[in-house]
Specification:
The chain is an alpha/beta fold. It has 14 helices and 16 strands. Bound molecules: 4'-deoxy-4'-aminopyridoxal-5'-phosphate.
C-alpha cells in the first residue's frame, strides 16, 4: 500500500499530518482477527471503537448486505419508506427502555447527538419556553465531534478554548464519583442538583452517557446516581438525553446502560454497534411527549433530514446484527468477559505506574498515572499479536463479544506484560 501517500495526504482520527503516528495497513478481518499486509494477524481488542460486536466478516451480516443490495442500496427517505427501516425502527422501539416510541435515523453518532439536542430545543420552543435552551452536561463526558455535540463534551479534553465564541455555552456538573454498584451519596449528586435548582428556567435538558463515561475517561458510575439525575429532571421539568452510542447493545452488561437504573430517558441516542460495525448508522429515539410537543409547535415538523437518512443497506444489516445479538447468549458472554477481564488484569493493580484497574461488562480499563506513549505501547502490543488503541493515561479493551477465552487471555496477558515492562 502507498503509505507515503497516506502519511502525506490523508487525515486519520485525531492525528497530525506533520508528524503522523504510525498506521498499520490492513488487508482483511475475520472473526476477532485483523490481518495486516505484512502477514501478521492481531486479536482485536477494540471492536473498531465499540462497534464490531460479533467480530468481522460475519456471514449473517454479509448475507443481509448482499440480499439488500440486490433490492436497492439506497433511496431517499423524504416521501418514501421501506421495509428495512420499518423493521429496524420496530425493533428499536421494542428493545429500548419503555416509552421511546419515535425514531429518527441519522448517519453517525455525532449527528444523532445533534438531532437529540435539536429535539430538546425545538420541544421547549414549541412549549413557549424558548429560554430553556441550555444543556447541563457532565465533566469527563464525550458526545461527538460536531459543533453541537462538542459543546457538551468535557471543556478541557474537548479543548473548548480553541473554539471560544463558536461553541454554544452550556453548564457542566462534576463527573459522578460514586463507583458502579454503590449507592450515590447526597454529596456526589450535590453540585448537579444545585445547578438544576438554580438554572432549570434556562435548561432544556441534561445530557449524559449513562453508567459508562467512554472517551472522556472510561469511568463507570453508580446506577443510583443515574436514577437520581432522572428524578431531578422530572422534578424540575428538564429532559434527559441518554447518549448510548457507546454503551448500547449490551456492552455494559445490560442491553442498554439505562437498564441498570431501570430508567427511560426522554431522548436516547444510539450508533456504533447498531450495525454490528459494518456501516455507519445512528438513531435518536424520543418519547411521544417530545415528538408530539415538537410537531404541535410553530414549525409543525422536526427540522432535520439527512440525504442518507434510513439508508436501506445500513438498516438491513442493523436488523441482522440485532437479530444475531438477541438470538445469542450475549449476556452470559459479556458476563464471562467481565469475569475474565477482572481476574486477568488484576495483577496490574499493584504494578508501578498503574493508578487503577477496572472492568464492567465487556470493557476492561487500565488507568496509568502518566499518559502513555501510544505509538510505543501499540507497537509492543502488536508484537504480541494484539490490537489496542490507548489514549492519554488509558489502556483499555472492549473486545467483540465473540472472543474466545484463549484469545482474551492472550489479550490481557499482553496488556499485563507490556504495561508491566513500561513501568
Ligand atoms: N457519543 C458517544 C458516547 C461516543 O462514544 C461517540 C463516539 N466515540 C459519539 C457520541 C460520536 O459518534 P460518532 O463518532 O459516530 O460520530
Amino acid at each position: 500500500m502507498d503509505l507515503e501517500f497516506d502519511r502525506n495526504h490523508i487525515w486519520h482520527p485525531y492525528a497530525s499530518l506533520l508528524n503522523p503516528p504510525p498506521v498499520y495497513p490492513v488487508v482483511r478481518a475475520e472473526g476477532v482477527r485483523i490481518f495486516l499486509e505484512d502477514g501478521r494477524d492481531l486479536i482485536d481488542g477494540m471492536s473498531s471503537w465499540w462497534s464490531a460486536l460479533h467480530g468481522y466478516n460475519v456471514p449473517e451480516l454479509n448475507h443481509a448486505l448482499r440480499a439488500q443490495m440486490e433490492q436497492m442500496s439506497h433511496v431517499m427517505f423524504g416521501g418514501l419508506t421501506h421495509q428495512p427501516a420499518i423493521a429496524l425502527c420496530k425493533k428499536l422501539v421494542e428493545i429500548t427502555p419503555p416509552g421511546l416510541n419515535r425514531v429518527f435515523l441519522a448517519d453517525s453518532g455525532s449527528v444523532s447527538v445533534e438531532v437529540a439536542i435539536k429535539m430538546a430545543l425545538q420541544f421547549w420552543h414549541a412549549q413557549g419556553k424558548p429560554n430553556k435552551n441550555k444543556l447541563l452536561a457532565l465533566r469527563n463526558g464525550y458526545h461527538g465531534d460536531t459543533f453541537g455535540a462538542m459543546a457538551t463534551c468535557d471543556p478541557v479534553t474537548g479543548m473548548h478554548h480553541l473554539f471560544a465564541g463558536q461553541l454554544s455555552q452550556h453548564l457542566f456538573a462534576p463527573a459522578p464519583r460514586t463507583p458502579f454498584g454503590q449507592p450515590c451519596s447526597d454529596e456526589d449528586i450535590g453540585e448537579l442538583e444545585k445547578l438544576v435548582v438554580q438554572n432549570h428556567n434556562i435548561l432544556a435538558a441534561v445530557i449524559l452517557e449513562p453508567i459508562v463515561q467512554g472517551t472522556g475517561g472510561m469511568r463507570f458510575y453508580s446506577a443510583d446516581y443515574l436514577r437520581r439525575v432522572k428524578a431531578l429532571c422530572d422534578a424540575y421539568d428538564l429532559l434527559l438525553i441518554a447518549d448510548e452510542i457507546a454503551t448500547g447493545f449490551g456492552r455494559s452488561g445490560q442491553l442498554f446502560a439505562c437498564d441498570h437504573a431501570a430508567i427511560s430517558p426522554d431522548i436516547l441516542t444510539l450508533g456504533k454497534a447498531l450495525t454490528g460495525g459494518t456501516l455507519t448508522l445512528a438513531a435518536a429515539l424520543c418519547s411521544d411527549r417530545i415528538a408530539e410537543g415538537i410537531c404541535h409547535g410553530e414549525a409543525g415538523v422536526f427540522m432535520h433530514g439527512p440525504t442518507f437518512m434510513g439508508n436501506p443497506l445500513a438498516c438491513a444489516v442493523a436488523n441482522a446484527s440485532i437479530d444475531l445479538l438477541l438470538s445469542s447468549p450475549w449476556q452470559q458472554k459479556v458476563e464471562s468477559i467481565e469475569t475474565q477481564l477482572k481476574a486477568q488484569l488484576a495483577p496490574l493493580e499493584k504494578a508501578e505506574g498503574v493508578a487503577d484497574v477496572r472492568a464492567l461488562g465487556a470493557i476492561g480499563v487500565v488507568e496509568m498515572r502518566e499518559p502513555v506513549n501510544m505509538a510505543r505501547v501499540q507497537e509492543a502490543l502488536i508484537e504480541r499479536g494484539v490490537w489496542l488503541r490507548p489514549f492519554g493515561k488509558l489502556v483499555y479493551t472492549m473486545p467483540p463479544y465473540t472472543i474466545a477465552e484463549a484469545d482474551l487471555t492472550q489479550l490481557t496477558a499482553s496488556m499485563v506484560a507490556v504495561l508491566g515492562e513500561m513501568a
